[in-house]
Amino acid sequence: MTDRRPPTGSSLTGALLSLPLVLFLAAAVAWPLASLAGHALSDPGWRAVRQVLAAGRYRTALVNSLGLSAAAALGSVLLAVAPAWVLARERFPGRNALRTAISLPLTFSGVLVGFLMVVLLGRIGAIPEALAYLTGRRMFEGAAYTVAGLFLAYLYFELPRAVMTLESAFRRFPRELDSAARALGAGPLQRLLKVGLPLAAPALRSTLAVTFSASMGSFGVALILSRRFTVAPLEIYTEMTGFLNDEVAGALALMLALSTLAVDRLLSVGKR
Prior knowledge:
Layout: H1 8-41, H2 43-54, H3 56-89, H4 95-103, H5 110-121, H6 126-135, H7 147-171, H8 175-183, H9 188-216, H10 220-225, H11 232-242, H12 246-269
Helix pairs in contact: 1-2, 1-12, 2-12, 3-7, 3-9, 3-11, 5-7, 7-9, 8-9, 9-12, 11-12
């Protein structure tokens, strides 16, 4: 039997090439999280954790972040499945231009996305102005500053990420199955439902995890649009810059990180 194990030298080379990334992650992720956790176990840190758990304002912010991020992740994945499948499996004129247009919001910051939502659905936004011109009534005026407006901004931010992630996963699917379904007369939608989605469960869970994690940490969109609806990143920013309360900000940041990690692990368990 042929030994298929890679040579020891190549493994050592791979480990050395990975070392800069490992050191960066240790310095930028592992150490700060360990520092937050260690501080939370100290007397001042534990008092801040109890304060966060006891105060309705902070609990509401965490629950709002969880609910809004879950809704944005689920919505973006549902809307991304069909375009991702078409981009990965179909050939048509303008495909590259469509992919570029879909991925464009990924280059925007959260603050810019928030301002774009204000331009669309602000008090003098393009959509209320157009509806006033067509119907004589100003509808959806100021909707950008509501929960629905915040959700649309999160969706606008996460949908391209979901499309790009799922397209990459769909490209790895066996083309023989797709070709067989095509030969049997199945159209693009049938092939997606009968072939793609059964194979896509791990990719869908991964995309849910990616979009949920990105939404949980989103700050710029909430900074521009949030009025009465607060989220955890915004509370962390306020505590640090407005009140110089590093203890509470650190406790909130730790809970935000743990919540995000817990959901990510839950979705990862389902992939096995």
